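seq:
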Amino acid sequence: MATKVSESEVQSGFVENWQKGKSVIESLRYSLEEKILCDVTFIVGENRKRIQAHRFMLSLRSCVFLAMLTGPLVEQDNIEIPDIDPDVFDQFLKFLYTDDVSIDGNNVIGLLYASKKYNIVGIEKKCLTYMESSLLSSDVCLVMEQAHLYNENNLMQTCLKYIWQNGDVVLKSDSFCDLCLDCFVKVIEADQLNASEESVFEAVIVWSEAECRRQGREITPENRRGVLGESVYEIRYSTLDPKYFDEKVSHTCMLTKDEQIKIMRSFLFRNKDISPFKSKHRVGKKETATSIQRFDNTDYKSMPPSVVNNEGIVFSLNTNAALRGFQVFGYLVQSFSVPMACKLTASMCETSTDQLVSGSSISKDILTRGVTVDVYFPSPIQLVQDKKYNLTVRIEISSEVRNVHTYVEYGYQQQTPLITLFTGKGGTSVVSHGSFTCSFYEYKQCSHLQVKMATKESESEVQSGFVNNWQNGKSVRESLRYSLEEKILCDVTFIVGENRKRIQAHRLILSLRSCVFMAMLTGPLAEQDDIEIPDIDSDGFDQLLRFLYTDVISIDGRNVISLLYASKKYDIVDIENKCLTYIESSMSPHEVCFVMEQAHL
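struct:
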């Protein structure tokens, strides 16, 4: 046994066969931690820590890294990354190599920033999930501020909803004073804020003093008023107790004498107009759900399935409200009466400015089973009285539906099916529920949506310079398999079998999985391109590579012997064990002599 091991070690040129028994993820993690075959160095953070990695792995996981590290404009070694903390970048790389990341309160914001910078959707989702599930009254304002900074509208809405529900406690937290003016206004202007107006006023005073200090101003009534600007009118002074107003509010001298008199009069004459100050009581948690049905009846029509269908509606409300979601009409495949898989994207903008409404952009897969499908926003969208909104929905029908294979008498025949499209019938322009009224108008496509549909490129794709962001959403194994199947960034070619099939692969992955391949493909004596492998069947070699990239392999009676030979030649213990297990479990009386001969060989 000792002689056999020694021969293998001498053949490979490595005494320590560290690859032995490791999965592809374990091999990648080990190569990152031990800096094996690294070919790029990053200078990270303020302390300029040197962190090594592999160009190939980073390019497989991020279209931004692919643009940075490959091609004619490739950045060379010692790439500066001053805006990310080294510990955060270490965790970031760990995810790119293993799909595993450790998120905590100290690194979540940095990881969110890195994920958006390098377009790593997997980390971004984990960070957002962590932040949403870890909200506390003491730090929700900090999370909201970061969501605002990184333009995470859904997280922003989640934070606002939490603040509205826990207003009295949040307004007294230290982190409330750290909000920027925009976020501060979003909190105190909300009718939904569940807090006493005394708490709102006191929080405004504390925030204004903190803002004066941030701006290097002396804390005076004039400077407090100056940093508050128009937001001072969001305090509902007329809902305060008159005694509190006289003893607390007047004492701050933040309001002018005329403003104080106007508000004092409102205590005597409750219906008196005190604009520009708001006078409406906050509603807190009180909500009434209302469903608006524009159409009286439903119709349907038959049509070939278009790749993309765009629909939209313009509407306004006669009061402030929160939009939870909407309904779209469904589809069915004719003659099958089966549900249809569709990709739905939606967004809403204000018609007067054409600006996107915060939190309204959604994208999800839906399955249409009947006449309508309910679609909900992650968080309710706050709508303003009498303002017109333009809701646009884009539905892409799955390619499987567009190419249905229907069974005929003598086999399968590809057909393009008709679909049933449900539509509304007998619509009205105004729908009322008691005092609540929703008005509908002629639809006009938003300009920002026209640009997006014309280009069919996301902002991240434009930024990275790649229209096809194939890395998006793929795991490590999925990215490796895709790179092998599509021959992306391959740097070695094998001439395999008697038919001399040309098979491309990547030196890094093969070297990290086999000490024999490492000896062959790296170092000063490395074999160059077009490496001859005449003694292994090409199908068997394809399966060998598939295992090295994904830990998945298909073994059957036709390839088991070839794979067993290849596993021994390249010292891949896991394939060898799988082959022996298959042979032992599949042995029959008429095969036993053949198997014994192969075992002897």
